[in-house]
Automatic annotation (TrEMBL):
Transmembrane segments: none annotated. This is SCP2 sterol-binding domain-containing protein. Residues 63-150 form the SCP2 domain. It holds the Pfam family SCP2. It comes from the Bacteria. InterPro entries: SCP2_sterol-bd_dom, SCP2_sterol-bd_dom_sf.
Amino acid sequence: MADNSTGSVIDELSALDFAAVSPPEFARIVKGLSAKQLGEAMHGELRTRVLGEVFGRMKQQFRPEAAGRLTALIRWKITGDTDVVYETSIAEGACTISAGRSDAEPRTTLIMADAEFLRLVSGNANPVTLFMMRKLKVAGDVGLASGLTRYFNIPKA
């Protein structure tokens, strides 16, 4: 990102083809932005594109060998202008992602703001630290929530 002002950051992010951005490159982009910049960038169509791409890649980042026989529904609630919900279902060595809230009861629900979510999925934040700082709220199985990162290849910036 060339300039540190929020307007130019949003312009640069809006111009990105997120499908062409590798996970390590995405991690570097997130690492280079402040929480304020991340929060300000996550609005409207850009927010929809970013969250869609992150959740769209989650299936490819899944590590079935690490999950073993785990069966769990994880609900992600990302807060911002509006709350966005996605669900990750892990069963029989496979991972499926769906947008929106189902009627199924999740084993754990993770609730966090846009900036914390982007930092978490890009390897720029530790879930335990976020939880201890109350930037990540967990409902349900806290043990599952604390170990989720081992089931996915998390990029490193």
